[in-house]
C-alpha cells in the first residue's frame, strides 16, 4: 500500500504534533501543505515563500506566528484581472442551465459497466497532446474519422478507448498497461482509414506504461484506491494524494488529469467518489480553459514578447507556459469561489467554450452567453507546448 505524505511525517510512532494543519498556521508550511495532500512541487512553493520571509527577520519568529502562509511570488508577466473575474462569477452564478457533465453517452462505458473504473483510470491520464506542430508553431488540432464519426481531440480518444472496451476490457487493467506495446497502442487509436492520427503516440505509450508500472509496484488497483479514498474524511483530497504517486498523473504540479479523473468519478451515475462537504475543489486547467481566460480577459499577459508569442501560436518555453497556466489556475479558482458553483459546473462550462470559441475558426460571439461581459480578445490563442500535463 502507498505511504501517504502524512505517514511520512510520523516520527517515533507518533505524528509530529508541532505541525498545525489549520489555515492560520505558518509553522513548517511546506510540510504542512504536503501533509494536507498538496502536490510536492506546490508544497515546496509554500515552503520557499516562508523561508524567504524568515530569512528577512531576526531568529525564528516567523515560524511561530499564527498568520496566513505567505503566497509564493508569481510571474508578474501574467496577472489576474479581478473586476473581470467578478463579472464572470456573477454571470455564472445566474446562468440557468449550468450543470456538471456525468461522463455517460456513446463514448463512455454505460452506467454499471464492470470495467468502468479501470477504463476511466487508464483513459483520463491519456487526455493530452491532441494537436500538431509545424516549424515551431501550433499547426492544427487532431481531427479524424473513427467509427463513422469525425471527432476532434479528447472526443477522439474517448471514442477510441470506448471501442477498445468492447473489444478487450482487460486492456485497461494496470497489469496490461504496464506492458503495453507500441503496436497495441497504435491499434487502439487507429482511425477508420487505418492510420494512427495521434501526434505524440510515444508519449501516450510512456504514460500507459508508467501508470501500470507504479500501480503494480505500489500494489494499487482502481477499486482499492476508491475504497481507501472514500473511507477518508476528505475522499477527493485522499484520491488526489494517492495519484501523486502514480505515473501519468503525478508529473503535473497543477494535477489537471488527476482532477479530471476525480470529477469523472464524482459525477458518474455510480458515484465512485463521494467527496465530503466543503472539500477543496481544484481546477483542471488545460489549453481550452487558458484560451478562455485570455480571450474573456480574466487574465492579462503584460509582457509584450510573451503576448505576441501567444498571438502567433509560437511554441513556448516551460517557464513562459507556467506564467500563463498558473495564473489561469488562480482565475478559475476565484470564479468558482465567487460564483458559489461547483468546480464540476465551472469546468464543464469553460470546457464547453471550445465550441463557441474554437482554436482555428472565428468565434461565434453573437450566440455566446459570455458576449456581454467578454473582452473579445479573439486574437489570443493559448500556450503552445508539448506536454503530457494536458
- Element string (H = helix, E = strand): EEHHHEHHEEEEHHHHHHHHEHHHH
Helical/strand content category: mainly alpha
Query: Unreliable stretches, pLDDT < 50, 5 or more residues?
Result: 1-27
Q: How much is the average pLDDT?
A: 88
Beta percentage is: 5-15%
Number of helices: 17
Molecular shape: globular
Q: Tell me the number of strands.
A: 8
Rg of Cα set: 21 Å
* Order of strands across the main sheet: 1-2
Query: Which bin fits the share of residues in helices?
Result: 40-55%
Q: How far apart lie the N and C ends?
A: 28 Å
Q: How would a textbook summarize the main sheet?
A: 2 strands, antiparallel
Annotation keywords:
390 residues, mainly alpha, two-stranded antiparallel sheet, 8 strands, 45% helix, disordered N terminus
Amino acid at each position: 500500500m502507498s505511504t501517504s505524505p502524512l505517514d511520512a511525517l510520523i516520527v517515533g510512532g507518533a505524528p509530529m504534533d508541532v505541525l498545525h494543519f489549520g489555515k492560520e498556521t505558518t509553522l513548517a508550511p511546506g510540510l504542512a501543505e504536503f501533509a494536507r495532500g498538496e502536490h510536492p512541487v506546490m508544497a515546496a512553493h509554500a515552503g520557499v515563500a516562508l523561508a524567504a520571509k524568515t530569512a528577512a527577520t531576526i531568529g525564528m519568529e516567523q515560524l511561530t506566528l499564527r498568520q496566513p502562509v505567505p503566497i509564493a511570488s508569481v510571474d508578474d508577466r501574467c496577472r489576474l484581472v479581478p473586476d473581470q473575474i467578478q463579472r464572470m462569477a456573477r454571470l455564472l452564478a445566474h446562468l440557468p442551465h449550468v450543470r456538471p457533465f456525468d461522463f455517460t453517452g456513446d463514448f463512455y462505458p454505460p452506467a454499471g459497466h464492470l470495467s468502468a473504473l479501470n477504463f476511466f483510470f487508464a483513459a483520463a491520464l491519456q487526455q493530452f497532446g491532441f494537436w500538431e506542430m509545424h516549424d515551431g508553431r501550433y499547426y492544427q488540432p487532431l481531427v479524424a474519422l473513427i467509427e463513422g464519426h469525425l471527432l476532434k481531440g479528447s472526443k477522439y480518444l474517448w471514442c477510441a478507448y470506448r471501442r477498445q472496451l468492447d473489444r478487450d476490457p482487460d486492456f485497461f487493467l494496470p497489469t496490461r498497461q504496464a506492458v503495453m506495446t507500441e503496436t497495441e497502442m497504435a491499434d487502439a487509436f487507429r482511425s477508420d482509414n487505418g492510420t494512427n492520427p495521434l501526434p505524440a503516440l510515444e508519449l501516450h505509450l510512456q504514460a500507459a506504461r508508467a501508470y501500470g508500472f507504479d500501480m503494480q509496484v505500489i500494489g494499487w488497483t482502481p477499486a482499492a484506491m476508491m475504497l481507501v479514498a472514500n473511507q477518508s474524511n476528505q475522499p477527493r483530497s485522499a484520491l488526489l494524494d494517492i495519484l501523486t504517486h502514480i505515473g501519468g498523473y503525478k508529473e503535473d504540479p497543477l494535477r489537471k488529469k488527476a482532477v479530471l479523473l476525480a470529477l469523472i468519478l464524482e459525477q458518474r451515475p455510480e458515484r465512485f467518489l463521494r467527496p465530503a462537504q466543503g472539500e477543496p475543489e481544484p481546477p483542471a486547467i488545460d489549453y481550452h480553459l487558458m484560451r478562455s481566460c485570455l480571450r474573456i480577459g480574466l487574465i492579462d499577459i503584460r509582457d509584450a514578447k510573451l503576448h505576441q508569442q501567444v498571438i502567433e501560436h509560437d511554441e513556448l518555453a516551460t517557464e513562459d507556459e507556467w506564467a500563463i497556466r498558473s495564473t489561469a489556475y488562480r482565475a478559475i479558482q476565484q470564479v468558482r469561489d465567487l460564483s458559489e458553483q461547483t468546480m464540476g459546473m465551472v469546468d464543464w462550462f469553460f470546457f464547453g467554450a471550445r465550441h463557441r470559441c474554437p482554436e482555428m475558426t472565428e468565434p461565434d460571439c453573437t450566440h455566446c452567453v459570455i458576449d456581454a461581459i467578454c473582452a473579445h480578445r479573439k486574437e489570443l490563442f493559448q500556450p503552445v507546448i508539448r506536454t503530457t500535463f494536458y
